[in-house]
Amino acid sequence: MDTTHETVVRLGTGSLCFGVYELGKPVLYLSDPELIREVLVKDFHIFTNRRKFITNDPMFDKMVGSARDLEWKRLRTVMSPTFTTGKLKRMTPLILECVDTMNDNIDKIIAKNNGQLSEPVDMKRITGAYAMEVVIQVAFGRKVSALIEPNNPIIENARKMFSTSLFSLVKFLTIMLAPNVAETFKISPFDRKVTQFFRDFSLTLIDDRKRGLETGSPVKRADFLQLLLDSIKNNNQAMDGSDEYTDSKSAEKYREIQPTDDMTDKSLTNDELISQCVLFLIAGYESSATTLAMCLYNIAKHPDVQQKLYEEITKFTEQKSSADPYEAFFALKYMDAVIDETLRLFPAAIFLERAPSEDYELKGTGITIRKDHVVHIPTYAIHRDPDNFVDPEVFRPERFLSENIAHNPYTYLPFGAGPRNCLGMRLAQLEIKLALVNLVRRYVFYATEKPLELGVATGIMKPKSVDLRISKRF
Ligand code: HEM
């Protein structure tokens, strides 16, 4: 991790961009915020796609994350209305059920030590179970308990999906670096039995819900499967994701794509719908689990920050004892800063990628990027560059309080930027905030001697374990 970061910083120092070869193919690394803005936002119509990642697995190739051009635009336009504030608010009770399960899991650990300070606990395991339960709950409307029922077929198959065995990594790298070989041998990054399991499982749920409609007893659910079924029925229009941002810089950074006349068919087939629910599992599990675990790691390492956060939360809950939990989403500014600073130091996705659909001259550089060649934006290195953040290796949430913000918005990219940014950003923020509010109110987290070991698999940060001790406040 550090070696990659240091190499990027060393090569990039004093330059707007630099190039490397990946198995003979040129890849351009961009670190200049203005050039990043050109690629992600201003010339998005040319940089709509990431690198070609064709897997021959119909479920994977239909996902919004891998779809291309007009196909991507259609999927994104149908899906973005399912992430509006109102819809996420309806999901809050589903997520809070998973928070309760997480609290029970931690209580059991503390009870083993008669309520005293716990032995070191791998919090990544706990937050991993939470993130998995949330994503299964919000995607498919099924309540599972990942730690208590590890043999539940949903959990078993979801775990298999995230296997990082040598074999799965070799398959992934072949698709990335030698797509023709992958195409010839029909290599898929996933075990086909696993994708078949989720397909059958989702089809049963869809049938149940359609039957409910026909028999006049529709299922009243706020999960994505239902929202996508409803949005197909209502032929929803896209919402502008920027409408909830009051400052123009964030509005530009997170503006959603709008439907256009060339998008005749806005409905999703059953197969497309299932692919999106499985994608939520893939995109939403590891990233959210790691971010929440790293928030706890940071506050354990900085007891003053933990105390300040506790005071903010208790003040809010005392003043608004009957407050809607969703309000915490907006009210707790210091908590926002803790999460933002955690995502700066530990962005779950360590880089972004785009590939132009035509030859493209990079403004002011004299460099032409050829069609389909990869542009790599090294998020992790950009977040730790002293030109972008003072004392970049120091955990200091205060730098994200609105009165202190000094960085260019395109030097902070944990959820990407432009119309192809993270579709689940608001859900991820909600899930992390609801968990943090509850955890910091109930428990105190303590650092251990064990050094943090960060790994990376397929561009996603994976701490090996995040060992903390825990005691209960009440
Ligand atoms: C802390 C948690 C998360 C982080 C840090 C994160 C980060 C990211 C990043 C960096 C990207 C690439 C953006 C770009 O290329 O500009 C991305 C894409 C995406 N994320 Fe997330 N993500 C998180 C959670 C989630 C969740 C919970 C979901 C859904 C349930 C989700 C769904 C997606 C999807 C569908 C895409 C592809 C969007 C597209 O290609 O149009 N993410 N995410």
Short description:
The protein has helices at 2-12, 33-42, 58-61, 69-79, 85-112, 123-140, 153-161, 166-177, 179-184, 192-214, 224-234, 248-253, 270-301, 303-319, 328-331, 333-345, 379-383, 425-442; strands at residues 17-22, 25-30, 121-122, 352-354, 360-362, 367-369, 374-377, 443-447, 454-457, 460-463, 467-472. The protein is of the alpha+beta class. The strands form 4 sheets. A 4-stranded mixed beta sheet has the order 1-2-7-4. It has a 3-stranded antiparallel beta sheet with strand order 3-11-8.
What does this structure look like?
The chain has 474 residues and is α+β, with helices and mostly antiparallel strands. It has 18 helices and 11 strands. The chain has a single domain (3-255, 262-472), classed as Cytochrome P450 (Cytochrome p450), CATH 1.10.630.10. The chain is 50% helix and 10% strand. The strands form 4 sheets. It has a 4-stranded mixed β-sheet. Strands 3-11-8 form a 3-stranded antiparallel β-sheet. A two-stranded antiparallel sheet has the order 5-6. α5 (85-112) runs antiparallel to α6 and α13 (270-301) packs across α16. It is globular, with a radius of gyration of 22 Å. It binds protoporphyrin IX containing FE. Protoporphyrin IX containing FE (HEM) binds next to α13 and α18. Protoporphyrin IX containing FE is lined by residues 64-65, 76, 279-280, 283-284, 287-288, 291, 348-349, 352, 414-417, 420-424, 427-428.
